[in-house]
Amino acid sequence: MDKAVMVVVDDRSDALAVVERELRKRYGSDYEVRCARSGREGLDLLRDTIAAGTDICLVFATYDLADLLSTDFFHKARLISPRAVRVMLTEKGDRHAVETMVTGTAFGEIDHRLVRPLEMVPDEQFHNRVSDYLYQWARVNRRGIELVKIVGRRWSQRAHELRDAMARNSVGYGFYDVAGDEGHALLVEAGVDPSVESPVVIIRDGPVLIDPSNRDVASALGFVAPTPQRVLDLLVIGAGPAGLGAAVYGASEGLDTLILEREALGGQAGQAALVSNYMGFPGGIGGQELAARACEQALLFGARFLATHDTVAIRDEDGVTACDLDDGSTVRSRAVIVATGAEYRRLGVPAIEDLRGAGVFYGSVSSEVRSVEGLDVAIVGAGNSAGQAALHLAKFARSVAVISRGETLEDSMSAFLITRLRGTPNVRVLLSRQIVDGGGDGVLTDITVKETLSGRAERLPVRALFVMIGAVPQTGWLPPQLARDEGGYLLTGIYLFKSGRGDEWPLQRLPFPLETSMPGVFAAGDVRHGSLHRVVSAASDGASAVHSCHEFLNGASREPRARAA
Predict the structure, then answer these.
(1) Could you write out the three-class secondary structure of 28-93?
(2) Among 3, 386, 408, 497, which residue's beta carbon has the most beta carbons within 10 A?
(3) Radius of gyration of the chain (CA)
């Protein structure tokens, strides 16, 4: 395989030489560094590199090119190599460079700003950023170590579910179509009949699994731990941003903490191609990456995870909360935080639902982005998740249609994302439309959209549809005594009384913030009434719920509330 190329463009020879030297010195064994001394020469270099079939990973250019505005250069560079990470080089404290960066970022032309490296000493801050950019690029564009090989039919729903589970849990995997030569060879080598209909999972240095459950795969990878028999201080149900936030803060403050997760780390946020407004990550961070870092942080503080386990019931057992799991075991804890979040609402079109996993996906952009390379795809939804997904898909798909029932995106999507969508040439936004039908014999080939006002229907040829149309809270498994609002979201703290459900609170004392109507059971994140439905607020919710847990654990009164005769 050819080395991926870093392109550096600067019309000042001395500055160019410093950047070139630093990049070659650190990364020359794995990447090729090519340089240009003007904006137009740089664009020609990009075109020639792409024409030769060589990957471009990073494009560096100074913001004050003499022959071409930097925004024009990055705009054209984006069209030539949309997957490359584009980095504007500046001097420290240059106000004009910052203004250019703000404009370029708003329109999606520039990904990052980086201060040029120092000339006389190793500049570790510069290299720390460059290494991060390379990691961002490689995790999407390069196959890593494949701990798992999945062999199945390309448009099989179960094969999609396995790919999604591996991607969302940051397990390195490769997918091989059973109809292809590589897939056929893998099955023969593994001693499996190549005519097998069900997906086959081949674990590196491990077993070969035919049509396994997610728990079977997790167990083979060593991810399934025994259910603890002791009474915990804190049980967190759900490993989305709220649950992970609770785990980090609970474990760091000395609580014996366990997290239960049914599917994958990160929840809905873990499916986000990029979380662009999370504090501390100026270039954004992938949802999976953010979840993986939070998980590692929680583990370092002593929290433990129990993967692929679903909680089916929760009840009070002599002052301790008992949670029954789907494998028949029970976990007991002095305090519980419910952070099960929400899942994408179903579209409700029978022809579309019949093709789930065969071109129709709920979320799942990260796991399916390579399978739609060069194809026409659509996203239905108008929130930030849909906007980020569209931008990510646009780097691979031939075209992306964003479909919304509303007349505008402004009420549900950030201005930052709307501007970037409008500036992406292969993305089009279709407003005041809804999907009413879909076509395809076992695999999606087209969708039918209807204009809300005129009623006119239009068929769009697409090979993939990603559905992101609002959320349904995951509260159906909870007992009736946990009060909910009309949408099924858990009522907590003062909301119990504001909603007129205060009579369902059983104790003399008032509930703590984020405490549900079942004492000792708290709710955090998208599952609760009043949530802001943002990643950062969900993580904050988790931390706040831990604070309430501490108050509860420190001898909170359990005196029953006096009832009228």
Answers:
(1) CCCEEEEEECCHHHHHHHHHHHHHCCCCEEEEEEECCCCCCCHHHHHHHHHHHCCCCEEEEEECCC
(2) 386
(3) 26
Per-residue pLDDT tens for 2-36?
A: 899 999 999 999 999 999 999 999 999 999 999 99
Distance of alpha carbon 265 from alpha carbon 39, whole angstroms: 43
CATH class of 231-343+472-553: alpha beta
List 410's β-bridge partners, or say none. Answer: none
Q: Do domains 4-141 and 350-469 have the same CATH topology?
A: no
What 8-state DSSP symbol labels residue 112?
E
Is 490:473 a contact under the CB 8 Å cutoff?
Answer: yes
The residues pairing with 478 across neighbouring beta strands, listed in sequence order, are none
Answer for the pair 162, 258: CB distance below 8 angstroms, yes or no.
no
Per-residue pLDDT of 384-406, as tens digits, reads 889 989 999 999 999 999 999 99
pTM (2 decimals)?
A: 0.88
What are the two backbone dihedrals, phi and then psi, of residue 197, each rounded to the nearest 5 degrees? Answer: -90, -35
Helix (H, G, I), strand (E, B), or coil: what is residue 224? coil
Reported as a single tens digit per residue, the pLDDT across 288-316 is 888 889 999 999 999 999 988 899 999 99
Coil, helix or strand at residue 498: helix
> pLDDT tens digits, residue range 322-332?
999 999 999 99
How far is the C-alpha of 26 from the C-alpha of 22, rounded, in Å?
A: 6
- Show the tokens assigned to 558: 């359990």
Domain ranges of the chain: 4-141, 148-220, 231-343+472-553, 350-469
**CATH 1.10.1040.10 matches 4-141:** no
Q: Which residues pair with 275 in a beta bridge?
A: 285
Closest of 16, 13, 69 to residue 40, by C-alpha: 69
Secondary structure class of 250 (helix, strand, coil): helix
Q: Any idea which residue has 């010195």 for tokens? A: 25
SS3 at position 271? helix
* Beta-sheet pairing, 320-325 with 311-317: antiparallel
DSSP secondary structure, 272-321, as one string: -S-BTT-TT-TT-B-HHHHHHHHHHHHHHTT-EEEET--EEEEEEETTEE
End-to-end CA distance of the chain: 81
Look at residue 447 and give its three-state secondary structure: strand
CA distance 215 to 329: 15
Question: Is 148-220 CATH 3.40.30.10?
Answer: yes
Distance between CA atoms of residues 155 and 347, nearest Å: 19
> How far out from the chain centre does Cα 326 lie?
26
User: What would the two tokens of residue 42 be?
Assistant: 């740089």
What pLDDT is recorded for position 1? Answer: 59
Of 338, 311, 291, 276, residue with least CA distance to 477: 311
